[in-house]
Amino acid sequence: MECEICGKEIRYRPAKIIVEGTELNVCNECREYGVEDVSTSVQHGVTRVVRKDRRPQQSKPIVFTEELVEGFNEIIKKERQKRGWSQEELAKRIQEKESLIRKIENAEMTPEPDVIEKLERIFDIKLREKVQEVKLSPQKKLVPTLGDVVVIKKKKK
Ligand SMILES: [Zn+2]
Question: Which of 33, 60, 66, 94 is deepest in the core (most CB within 10 A)?
Fold first, then answer.
């Protein structure tokens, strides 16, 4: 028997799944495409159909976000001192409050993106780095439709 999704030979018992109301005999690898498992068992001459709900698998799309570099406060402080500016002077140059500069340098707060930009520009440095972030999207429906299954089949051949 061949898997009705990928076409691979099924050595053991095929898994029965339902994709958009259609029952398919599939291999173990493809059973996750289905909404439900349908397993039949014969007990005392009565065929029982057991349906199990399958949770859709969560995908982990990779998102790139910009994050402040480690020790950004030290970098800012160093760049400021290199130029011989006081916190007040730096604050004036980027049109922010002195207290904000102090808090940033003491790592008491994370500067807003527009402040970071101004600091990057005035010091001609990079305070952000691209990091890979794995986000979970629990709300997204991940069970493929029959259309998706056809695409999967094409790809695997
Ligand atoms: Zn398969």
Answer: 33
Alpha carbon of 145 to ligand 1 centroid (Å) = 15
> From ligand 1's centre to the CA of 81, what distance in Å?
64
Total length of the chain: 157
Q: 76 alpha carbon to ligand 1 midpoint, in Å?
A: 56
Residue whose tokens read 């051949």 = 157
The per-residue pLDDT for 153 is: 58
For the chain, domains (ranges, CATH) are 15-59+141-156 (no CATH), 67-133 (1.10.260.40)
- Find the 42 Cα to ligand 1 centroid distance in Å: 25
Strands (E), the chain: 15-19, 22-26, 36-43, 46-53, 62-68, 128-134
92: its two tokens? 């004036």
| 3-class DSSP state of 33 | helix
- Residue 10 near residue 2, CB atoms below 8 Å: yes
- 124 pLDDT band (50/70/90 cuts)? very high
Centre of ligand 1 to C-alpha 62, Å, is 26
CA of 56 to the centre of ligand 1 (A): 17
* 85-98 pLDDT tens trace: 999 999 999 999 99
pLDDT of 15 reads 86
